[in-house]
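Progress against Task 2.4 (sequence-to-structure conversion) is shown through the following example record, which the project officer requested during the mid-term review.
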Amino acid sequence: MITGIGSLPHLDPVEAAFFVLDTTTIPYLPQHPNRHTSERMLPQWGDGLCGCGFVDSELGLQYGVPAGDRSAALVGYDTLLKMLPPDTEAVKTQATGPVTLAMAMLAVGHPGGEDLFDCLISQLRQRVNDHLASISERLPNTEIILMLDEPALSGLLARSFPMEVDTVRSLLESMVGGLEVRPGIHCCGPTDWNLVASVNPSWISWDIDALGPRFDAAHEAIAAATGTGTRIMWGVAPVSMGSPPRDLVSRLQRAMGTLVMGGADMASLVSSALYSPACGLAGLTEGQAEIVARTVHTVVGEMAELWTP
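Structure tokens generated for the chain above:
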């Protein structure tokens, strides 16, 4: 099954929707940060929460300003949602995770503390649940795959990271266990995969080129999580391109082999997996995004040949 991370370079939401339908087997609701600033990941989910409003700046948020006009914030999501047939088997969506939003809010002036974390979990949870309800209303018989985008987790290994590990864990646990659909966690950089696995997300999504030694150290914990229901979304095609598919297949095999050595079942890893680009594609041209999306298909096809008796 092939899906995507979220962001696309397209300016036309209808063209983006057709791109998704043409390049995936599990469609994903796309974001168009180049089309409208309110579709960037931080304002899209953080504008109006916990005293932070929209401003046209690098982060797109500022503490102490009112919420912006959110009429364009979910245009990409809504456009594709309206195009999906009622018998769609599954659809993938995503929301900015609480750790990444908390980091952004601290950076734009929020005084922080427990008030921020309590407020953020409550208000973000409500916003995400409202989004899930809108999908269920349109597609009542469709499975919803929800991912929390957490790029900030890649900073967790740095001494300068401004949150305690226990706070990070608490934020993730509160979101993972408090939504109408149990979410997965996406981080396309190296992080503490032991921590991610410990909160029992429904999915773990990563860039296979950025797993690093922390992945090797956490392989038993991740394998254990897959034994209790966590599934893997393999980010197999880097957005930088350049690597031939055979190299990407080899990297994927090595990563899978590492989890098998930790106790995971190889057949389950393959049969229950999703495959995607490594990260969002908004920083590319539309043509480059097409190449990356097609590379995912090539890698999956070559893996299928290896697994065919």
